[in-house]
Amino acid sequence: MKTYDFITSTSEETIQFAERLGRLLQPGDVLTLEGDLGAGKTTFTKGLALGLEIKRIVNSPTFTIIKEYHGRLPLYHMDVYRVSDEGEDLGFDEYFDGEGVTVIEWAHLIGEQLPVSRLDIHLYHEPDNRRRLVFKPKGSRYEQLCEEFFHEDLSN
Ligand code: ADP
Ligand code: MG
Q: Which PANTHER family match (predicted)?
């Protein structure tokens, strides 16, 4: 399976990179974000929100599990860190099947409930504030999205 890598040196770079991805997202897209605490999952989501033309500030939904924002498309931002039971059904399907874009931090914690077709993104700490972002598309929609995204002129 093809994967895609990108390194950022600052949180601003992570935001800009995610913003560019956010501009390409379509209704029903599902993205998972994995990585240690402080890896940049919420920071990445802030960038996605910019790309979706969301004006409100995006903050971590750790305590509410799901926050919804409205821009060019709705954004359903989930942080399932506090979901204690992997199989606990909190109505996730309605979001996955909805008209918005779903972004799930710590998605493996609800692994059984995730749609098969999705874009998995892993953020890794590297020295000096750098982060390595690794994209693993699952299914043709996300394979095409990654091809388009990673072949765009990076100077945009
Ligand atoms: P998570 O949601 O994964 O727990 P956050 O996005 O909340 O992580 O926090 C990431 C922290 O790391 C922020 O304080 C951010 O400013 C900082 N940071 C430093 N360098 C980077 C980078 N290259 N990319 C993303 N965040 C970075
Ligand atoms: Mg977070």
A: TRNA THREONYLCARBAMOYLADENOSINE BIOSYNTHESIS PROTEIN TSAE
